[in-house]
Design brief:
Elements: H1 2-15, H2 18-28, E1 33-40, E2 47-52, E3 60-61, E4 64-66, H3 73-85, E5 89-100, E6 103-112, E7 123-129, H4 140-163
Parallel strand pairs: 1-6
Antiparallel strand pairs: 1-4, 2-3, 2-7, 5-6
């Protein structure tokens, strides 16, 4: 019986125009938000953190923001960096993604080309930190990711030194 119902539904689905299929698919799927976050490292192996007005805890965290509907992820990161701190990026690489309920956060690693400046009303200030100097009430996830990225960079540099 169920097989007949499935085939009937499929036959109707196949006759629908593409726009209708998209509308139905989006209507029945859970909604979520996506953000792009940067782990920006300078030549001293310090990471850039920002003091945000609307961030829980101390307010300190990695720079980033929401991805717009038609935006590519890296483009969103670059736009947010310019809007918040006036920084162009080099050597941008996707690092990881994580979900938190209905939010997807994509983390990138990159190197700032310019010196940061506060450009947004959302940002109070910024600072460059070594992992041991990060605020104690900063997001544990962000602290862990920063430590991982910096340790991988140290390991990579040591490995390259051995090959020389």
């Amino acid at each position: 019986m169920w097989n007949k119902v499935q085939r009937f539904i499929r036959s109707i689905w196949q006759r629908l125009p593409v726009e209708s299929k998209i509308t139905v698919a989006r209507a029945i799927q859970p909604k979520f938000t996506v953000s792009a976050t940067g782990i920006l490292i300078n030549e001293k192996n310090e990471v850039l953190i920002l003091e945000h007005i609307l961030r829980p805890g101390s307010g300190w965290g990695l720079p980033g923001g929401f991805v717009k509907r038609t935006e590519q992820l890296e483009d969103a990161l670059r736009r947010e960096m310019m809007e918040e701190i006036g920084v162009e990026l080099a050597e941008v690489q996707t690092y990881c993604a994580r979900t938190n309920r209905t939010h997807v956060e994509i983390f990138f690693v990159g190197r700032p080309i310019d010196e940061p400046q506060v450009k947004s009303r959302e940002i109070i200030g910024f600072k460059w930190c070594k992992p041991e100097d990060l605020p104690t009430d900063m997001s544990r996830t962000q602290v862990r990711l920063i430590q991982e990225v910096l340790q991988r960079k140290v390991d990579k540099n040591e490995e390259q030194g051995l090959k020389s």
